[in-house]
Amino acid sequence: MEGRIAVPKYSRIFRRFLISYIVILIIPSIAGYMSYRTAISVTQSISIENKVTQLQKSQEILERRIAEVESFTRQLALNQDLSLLLSENLVDEKANVYGIWKITRDIKAYSQTNDFLKHFYIYLRNFNVIITPGNAYFRPEHYYQTSRYANLTLEEWKSSILDKTHRSEMLPLSPFINNGVQTSVITFMQSLPLDSFNDTSPAMVVTVIDEQTINGVLSGLRDPDGGWTYISDAQGRTLSLQGIKQQEIDQLSSDSRLDKKKMSQFYADDLVITIRSDSSGWVYRAGIPRHNLMENANKIKYITWSVTGVALLIGLIVGFLLSYRNTAPITKLLGVMKEQFGKDATLGRNEYDFLQGNISHIITNNKRLESELNRQLPLIRDAFLKRLIAGEFQSREEIISAAAQADTGLSMNAGYTGILQINGYSGMDSVEILNELNAARLILKQFLLESGSPLNVQMTDVGSDRIVAIFTAVEQDELEEIRKEDIEGLMNTLAESAFSEYRITITAAISDPFSSIVEVSRSYEQARQAWEYAVYMNRKGIVWFSDTQIESNTYYYPIDVELRLISTIRAGDIHEAERIVQSIIEQNTRNRELSMEMKHQFIGELKGTLLKLLDQKALMESPLFEKIKDRIIGIQTQDGIEIISREISDIIVAMCEVISSKKSDIHIKTVKQINEFIAEMYSDPDLNLYRIAEKVERPEKYISQLFKEVTGTNLSDHLEKVRMDHAAVLLKRNEFNVDEIATHVGYNSSHSFRRAFKRVMGVSPTSFRQSAE
């Protein structure tokens, strides 16, 4: 209920956010509307221009085809065989059959190569014969029976067409019956020879052009659901009619609202386009329905309004939600501030001034807190060192993270651990003594920090009179391994300075060297044993753990060391596993004197650890399983420690090699699967590291590192190389241009492809293709 009450209280913030989002929506909407109006106007102009261009192209095509027909008649006029026939006469009522047959054969090719010459005939007056492609009618009446004008009788046909002289004349659109099929045609007529001036000519070439053939030239002007075309000659006679009736054409031509001189104009609900041929005087007219002409514009209109409406609706919803979401934290923050700094706190000019003032106050307090944390940093470092020597960390990574958090600057390399004992205060616990010990510890620490030694020293207190010091190298490149002499020199200098200046005597118990930071806890135990030995034997100065050979009734093999050994072998790390085993054996031979019974138990524990490892899947599936198992069981506890140590090392090596080999096989199979997937999908532009990881069912970071380890090449570089190799093959074939090749090999951008190709191949794709050619 508190949240519901708070929103109305600060609703003016919500209103400000909502109004700003609405303004952001309105501004692009206005710009979009202006762009929409411009796009509609431009689309309409382009559509009209396209239709005019189409009609002009159709005119050019039709006139060129008519010119081809006329050119055909001129070629016939030059035909020698036809000229010979024209000069002959009937002899005993017998015609030159061979000559006529030859003409029918020669003109047959014209009808097969030109659809405008599909139906034509030649009338020879001297033989009274009609010649068609592949056929001859020795009486015109026979031709009239198969092909005739529906509105002309035989006599009218003879008198108006065959018995007159025609000079490139065009008969307007007329009904025509051809082999029983009725259609409409225009007729082109030319007398032969071309210079015939008499009323009757020796021969006549008549070309019958079907209306559908003409309409095919004009088909691009008509849309599937509307539109019409009309062609008339210079005298206004109809030559072609499509999509409209003659009565409508007559009405259109006589309507004063139609300006005959305008190329394009809207009449009724059609866009009428009119052009006139300069050569023939023909008039070409096309009508396009307004809804077809504006189809693209209407699509833009509908899409624009739909998208704008949906965008505004979604924008309002999103703006409302964003306003609520953005004001809710401010409202809650204001409520928290009011509760924190008082209900009666003034808001100032607005809520933001109120928040700014109080957040500044919080930042100031935060800086104070940060200063306090920095002051507490030495305590954090001290706590880290105490956890480190106590062995509370489980892994090297955990130690590194904790060391970085504490800002210790501790080197993660080899070193020593030591305990510094301030002598002479045993059993004293008065306030004055404790203060004096505290001062003595500070003096010793300050000296170690300012000694100028090439050692990194980290210190913590483990009692009122003892300091634990961890000695590591400052820089690994400068000092890879700490020498025993360096620590002895540092301790001797410390003892001399502490005694000469402050009369403080110390005893330093130093461990054996540790080779990894995870062994600091074991090293500390060695230093503590050396310190106990020094106290027990009343030794002063420096006491090394290696000098405290103490007989022990127990062997050294703690559970944390065993777990570390098991995890190391499971990881296949041969060197680390051998180092841990050697360290354990040294602990039980160099620093302890084990009885035979303890020795047998210790070796039995090591054998048990190795037998535990045999339950690994990689080992159980290996053909060496039984051999390794027999070698572990065959270790004889009565043998010398060197023989046992060497045998255990050999067994560990065999185990790690089997595990590493198994991992290597798995890695190789995974890399092979990656290579196969890339080879199959390289042309997919969406192929990336995520999809490859999804395919092999491994994490992205894992497969990236794995591919680099196995192949020595980055996965992204390999994918790019595969694509460039395929691109090189396509460039050599010379079947595609560079942009198409970029798409084939998985690039959405040809610019990106060109850069990648030059980076991999050293030359541009164009240069590569030229060199290949």
Automatic annotation (TrEMBL):
The keyword Ligase does not apply. One of its GO terms (molecular function) is sequence-specific DNA binding. The keyword Cytoplasm does not apply. This is AraC family transcriptional regulator. It comes from the Bacteria. Keywords: DNA-binding, Membrane, Transcription, Transcription regulation, Transmembrane, Transmembrane helix. The chain crosses the membrane at residues 18-36, 302-324. SUPFAM superfamilies: Homeodomain-like (SSF46689). Signal peptide: none annotated. Residues 672-771 form the HTH araC/xylS-type domain.
